[in-house]
Amino acid sequence: MSKILIRGARVLGGEPQDVLIDGEFIEAVGTGLSAEGAEVVEADGKILLPGLVDLHTHLREPGREDSETVLTGTRAAASGGYTAVFAMANTFPVADTAGVVEQVYRLGKEHGYCDVQPIGAVTVGLEGKKLAELGAMHESAAGVTVFSDDGKCVDDAVIMRRALEYVKAFGGVVAQHAQEPRLTEGAQMNEGVVSAELGLGGWPAVAEESIIARDVLLAEHVGSRVHICHLSTAGSVEIVRWAKSRGIDVTAEVTPHHLLLTDEMVRSYNPVYKVNPPLRTERDVLALREALADGTIDIVATDHAPHPHEDKDCEWAAAAMGMVGLETALSVVQRTMVDTGLLTWADVADRMSFAPARIGSAAGHGRPVSAGEPANLTLVDSAYRGEVDPAGFASRSRNTPYEGRELPGRVTHTFLRGRATLVDGKLA
Amino acid sequence: MKRHLISAADLTRDDAVLILDTAEEMARVADRPIKKLPTLRGRTVCNLFFEDSTRTRISFEAAEKRLSADVINFAAKGSSVSKGESLKDTAQTLEAMGVDAVVIRHSASGAPYRLATSGWIDAPVINAGDGTHQHPTQALLDAFTMRRRLIGPDAGLGQDLAGRRITLVGDVLHSRVARSNVDLLHTLGAEVTLVAPPTLVPVGVENWPCEVSYDLDAVLPKSDAVMMLRVQRERMNAAFFPTEREYSRRYGLDGERMARMPGHALVMHPGPMVRGMEITAEVADSDRCTVVEQVANGVSIRMAVLYLLLGGNEPALTHPRTEEK
């Protein structure tokens, strides 16, 4: 049966409507659509969104298949309502050649849970010294358009300038992990009141802000566009706001955890809260929410960073940085942005699907929920309340800071080009 | 008192005074021909040192032995943070061997806290210094030294340090001793001033219960005790200050500066001292300098802490006993 009727869903949070899927496409959106010949999904007032798009995912394959693989990562993505994820380049080997990006792209296609769009490294081996073959990666089957040394900052101003200029030839974008390396030597957590007390090395806000300031100026100078990864401070918001007001082509993302958690959590010395950039202060969190609401920050991206148990069950300094996020992202956004009245569901569709697809040039994703469009859809039960139980995660890793926390909302169905990848909360 | 001693901030004023008073009792043991109490007989204490510190380890070991505990020394030199599993695995091995308390020294801030709260082991944990976080028994022995000198051993019993003005000078940023002392001295009612070049004061210090000054000469005449902190020579390479000489000129304690202190004021140092840079030999060897006393007092304080965490709450000397586990 190739037809599916989603009945009574609130499309982008609007009035209940029916959505009829035929094959890979949406055939019709309206009220009282005929269910004849179609499998019916009773949506009953649930929120229907375009399939979510994550511009910042770590799938770990190749190289760290003990943390995550393309299969487990895309299953996690489908569970979280995603139909496309951009896989970061810091794998082993690094995704800095056409061969590696094609491998990751092909694995995504084979598994079929979610489209995987590889991100290419900006520099060879993420070493910041020599540009990787950006053009070859773009021309490969993977069609790479986003380039990032994420995990590391492209800190050499000349290399950054060249990368920004070079990708203009094929409409690419450089996604910067803004972290001035000298200012963050030995950094373990946000530098401030809590780090002073805990005696953990400080990661100052200015280390992020100074790079963002430099990069928006470089982007302006060479007339290119730059994307700022996981922006985390109130000061960064101010710089991006200024850059946009000046007409600089900059986009920015915020992670769900930076919208909810603060450096106060680090008092537990529990490495589940160790992440890069670090959790900041309440003031930063509020500024980030406001910036996401007013559009200064364009998108939410998960920075899904799976790590095996042993890399977190240790003392803080020895622990790996990062937390998983694909399966909890929408709940955190509902909690911090929707339930607080800062964003409507239509805004959520923009920040988590339309805009990330646009920034990453993900064809077929981030499209309107209307007739003739690809049937990439996510159905959300926004009334659901429940505690996060990592035991049920599809991700191979469990390093979530939300274990046992109550979060609202649950993705019940995900459709990738008309095929259900998630049905009633269970992977298809 | 709490089950563990992780941070000086864990102690209430009454806890701290109880430890200081108990340490006075313990100090008397050192004056006896046989310097030993049966209090912890049959108990096993492990000194788990992931970071070298001969002084602190020997001090704890002396305290444990004077209380008749069985002592296991575990030195994990080199393996410290290279692989995080080592702490958990080592701790669980010790637990399986029936260790009754763990004294831990670690280069990672928070390692003792993790050990005490992660469910890896059940035994009480005593922090013997973690990274740049805390070194609570050092703060206790410093407070003990101050109380003895400024009030007197017997007159001091039951007393705190209310109104005393204590100055800490040097590398506050990297100093667990400074953090511990600020917490404990504040709890004991003292007024604490930190003096350092701005590069060696942590961002966020404004929330600490103390004053901060960059001018040592202005603070000295108002100090009942001046505690010099160790400055590691490698800080110079990281541009925390221009030269050793410049540091010494601005923040070193020499005879001339010591003369500006009130007549009763002490000079303290947690050791080891870098003579000539942070403190001149003249000052280090003067009778105002309590460095050697601090070492002796360290044993008394550690005995008191071990006794109170492991031995029970009865008076140490009148009813020595070994408790059932």
Radius of gyration of chain B: 19 Å
Shape of chain B: globular
CATH-level-2 architecture of the largest domain in chain B:
3-Layer(aba) Sandwich
Number of DSSP strands of chain B? 9
Protein name (chain B): Aspartate carbamoyltransferase
Organism (chain B): Streptomyces angustmyceticus
Binding site for carbamoyl phosphate (chain B): 55-56, 105, 135, 138, 271-272
EC number (chain B): 2.1.3.2
Give the secondary structure arrangement, pairings included.
The complex is a heterodimer of chains A (428) and B (325).
Chain A: E1 3-11, E2 16-22, E3 25-30, E4 39-42, E5 47-50, E6 52-57, H1 70-79, E7 82-87, H2 98-111, E8 115-118, H3 134-139, E9 146-147, H4 157-166, E10 173-176, E11 189-190, H5 193-198, E12 202-203, H6 205-222, E13 226-228, H7 234-245, E14 250-254, H8 256-260, H9 282-294, E15 299-300, H10 329-338, H11 345-360, E16 377-387, E17 406-416, E18 419-423, E19 426-427
Parallel strand pairs in A: 1-4, 1-5, 6-7, 7-8, 9-10, 10-13, 11-12, 13-14, 14-15
Antiparallel strand pairs in A: 1-2, 2-3, 5-16, 16-17, 17-18, 18-19
Chain B: H1 13-30, E1 44-49, H2 54-66, E2 70-75, H3 85-96, E3 101-106, H4 111-117, E4 125-130, H5 136-150, E5 165-169, H6 176-187, E6 191-195, E7 211-213, H7 216-219, E8 225-228, H8 234-237, H9 244-251, H10 255-258, E9 266-268, H11 281-284, H12 291-311
Parallel strand pairs in B: 1-2, 1-3, 3-4, 5-6, 5-8, 6-7, 8-9
Helix pairs in contact in B: 1-5, 1-12, 2-12, 5-6, 5-12
